[in-house]
Amino acid sequence: MKYDLIVVGGGPGGLMAAKTAAEDGLKVVLIERKRNITEINRACSQIFYTHKLTVMAGGESD
């Protein structure tokens, strides 16, 4: 697979970078060690919809 941007980490900066780049039309992959973004204990994670994210580890997707 080819991506325009690979973001490592689903923290506040990573989530916003991935979201902004995707909204600008880039093909983005977000890599996070947690299997589900809602497991990340950060306040900003609630503004992102997990069904729009593909979890690469384990081959799972929502």
TrEMBL record:
Question: Which is an annotated Pfam family here?
Answer: FAD_oxidored
InterPro entries tied to this protein? FAD/NAD-bd_sf
Designated name of the protein: FAD-dependent oxidoreductase 2 FAD binding domain-containing protein
Say which species the protein is native to.
marine sediment metagenome
